[in-house]
Write a structure and sequence with these properties.
The protein has about 375 residues and is an alpha/beta fold. It has eleven helices and 13 strands. A six-stranded mixed beta sheet has the order 10-9-8-11-13-12, sandwiched between helices. A five-stranded mixed beta barrel has the order 1-2-3-5-4.
Length: about 375
Amino acid sequence: MFDLDNSAAPALTAYGWDDGFAERFTPYAGQGFVPGRIVRVDRGRLDAVVADGDGVRTVLADTALVATSDPMRVPCTGDWAVIDLENGRVGDHVDGVVRALLPRRTAFVRSASSKRSEGQILAANVDHAVIAVSLAEELDLGRIERFVSLAWESGAQPLVALTKADLAPDPEGLAHLVADAETAAPGVQVLAVSSATGGGVEVLAAVLAGGTSVLLGRSGAGKSTLANALVGEYVQDVQAIRDRDGKGRHTTTTRDLLALPGGGVLIDTPGLRGVGMWDAEAGLARTFSDVEALAGECRFHDCAHETEPGCAVLAAVENGALPERRLVSYRKLQRENLRIVAKTDARVRAEIRRDWRQKQALGRHMMERKRGPRE
């Protein structure tokens, strides 16, 4: 039986087990259950690492007892599960069943679809969200802002990794790309890394050591290659990108939790074609802290930063203090986030309708003034 004392399972400590999770496991202690960290989920079953003497072993567990239609409560890579290895075997090839999931500390969530009001959890109990952006193509600052906003909202510390740095034209050009990324992600560390040359990999590994990190980005961003470099061995398949558009195929097809040699674990995820906003108001405020600070100086507290007089945000765009691209991105992500929230919040839907009616009334009033008094 598993002892709640962390010293009884030093190997699990390397996977993120600590006093906080031990306390959450207390209600299940003494029932023959063991804690396990989920390393992979696939079709109603999952792989998890559990303590085995001084080491760990991987077990296959069935998830039927925790099955739910709520996508926010399904088991996810990075979760800590309560596993029954003694009772409830469901087949010759299954080691046990999952009895419960321990409460999550953090969860990286995206919108499952722009047409549905469901979220999808990509990784749980994460300390660092590493956003991989390839320098083999034009730097997409809007994508960085989107990922960073969701990372802040998740409770994890975002970090931007500019991969394939060896493809940068020269050191000066690379420095400019890093600076541009830093502008798009205030307060976030930006590292240029190259899995081919090893440049920046040791620095990134040192930042991630001892915690749980998730590697995120689009296909072809070099996530699997970077994961191999961080782990120090070939653990993820790598495929070449297409010459015609610089895009890659989904090399990683499941979310895998990998142990890092310097301590801690890394969750590698499949390439993401799209990442929709999901109730990320606080995350957007941190990502666009420069815009938010300027907004506090506007004449009207409800300024939309469009045509209002005394708008400090528009004034900053006009004098070059704030890039217009950044304001456009801010508006776009705010609108998208509001639409997602409105799908599940009746109060927000009512506010949107009221605001729309007010704008319609104002538009009619301005048109009447323009036409002049009727005969």
